[in-house]
């Protein structure tokens, strides 16, 4: 575990990084749940970051917020600027602190970003009990091999009433189905290299489990491990279609048309979940 020097200057987030760039970027969890969030979000990273800040403000801890980033190495939605924006809302002067855990030993956070950092899985991290007001993860849950063990460790370190927010591919959308089909055909690595590039795939591609990616999976596990009934919302921006390159472009128009006319929120690409620890 490492800690930042108290005198180490921190990098401010770019001005306006959390400001909405699309209609549903910062409307709050309840409205996300109630709406059809298709192509009216600029990125899941911006949506998730605004929800994290909303939770900190809702709890309004006079001693500052204790926040944990699970799988923190590459940023929120692969954007470190969102992490800096979260840090600016912690209330560090009042005692708030930003914690990060990252399983990949080759990935290191930007200097000064986290007050406490360690290379570890959620299940093996050395974290204090009842410590965090808010924990969150960005595209982590689809890789978790044992969700029950993950939630046991998470529940232990959240304060009573603490919240875990997470963004993950929605099991009912086309993304997991495509991943499953490509894996069965043994072409998943080939396709990923085609659309993402060899280096990016080798550095950031982790095994997919898809064991905590539908409302049913989330509810079945969360309520058995100390959480209130979970809340789920669904969003989809243009980022989900970045995989449609080369011959895959032919699939994009019919999928877009289906989304526009059928309007089923539970089929959108990204699930954003909210778990609250029982008080």
From TrEMBL:
Q: Which SUPFAM superfamilies match?
A: S-adenosyl-L-methionine-dependent methyltransferases
Q: Name one GO molecular function term.
A: 2-polyprenyl-6-hydroxyphenol methylase activity
Q: Is Methyltransferase given among the entry's keywords?
A: yes
Kindly give the Pfam families that the UniProt entry links to this protein.
Methyltransf_23
What GO terms describe the biological role, i.e. biological process, of this protein?
methylation
PANTHER family (alphabetical): TRANS-ACONITATE 2-METHYLTRANSFERASE-RELATED (PTHR43861)
Tell me the protein's name.
Ubiquinone biosynthesis O-methyltransferase
Lineage from the top down?
Answer: Bacteria, Pseudomonadati, Planctomycetota, Planctomycetia, Pirellulales
């Amino acid at each position: 575990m490492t800690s930042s020097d108290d005198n180490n200057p921190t990098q401010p987030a770019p001005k306006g990084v959390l400001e909405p760039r699309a209609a549903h970027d910062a409307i709050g969890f309840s409205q996300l749940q109630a709406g059809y969030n298709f192509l009216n979000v600029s990125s899941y990273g911006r949506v998730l970051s605004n929800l994290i800040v909303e939770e900190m403000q809702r709890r309004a801890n006079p001693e500052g917020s204790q926040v944990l980033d699970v799988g923190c190495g590459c940023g929120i939605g692969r954007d470190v600027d969102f992490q800096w924006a979260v840090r600016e809302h912690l209330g560090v002067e009042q005692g708030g602190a930003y914690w990060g855990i990252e399983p990949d030993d080759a990935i290191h956070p930007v200097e000064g970003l986290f007050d406490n950092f360690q290379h570890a899985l959620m299940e093996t991290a050395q974290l204090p009990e009842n410590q965090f007001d808010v924990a969150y993860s960005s595209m982590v849950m689809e890789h978790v091999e044992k969700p029950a063990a993950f939630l046991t460790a998470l529940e232990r370190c959240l304060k009573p009433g603490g919240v875990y927010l997470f963004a993950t591919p929605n099991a009912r959308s086309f993304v997991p189905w495509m991943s499953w089909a490509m894996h069965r055909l043994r072409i998943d690595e080939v396709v990923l290299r085609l659309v993402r590039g060899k280096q990016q795939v080798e550095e950031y591609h982790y095994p997919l489990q898809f064991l905590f990616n539908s409302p049913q999976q989330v509810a079945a596990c969360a309520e058995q491990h100390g959480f209130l009934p979970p809340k789920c919302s669904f969003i989809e921006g243009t980022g989900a279609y970045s995989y449609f390159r080369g011959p895959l472009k032919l699939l994009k128009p019919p999928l877009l048309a289906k989304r526009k006319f059928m309007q089923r929120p539970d089929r959108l690409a990204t699930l954003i979940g909210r778990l609250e620890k029982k008080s």
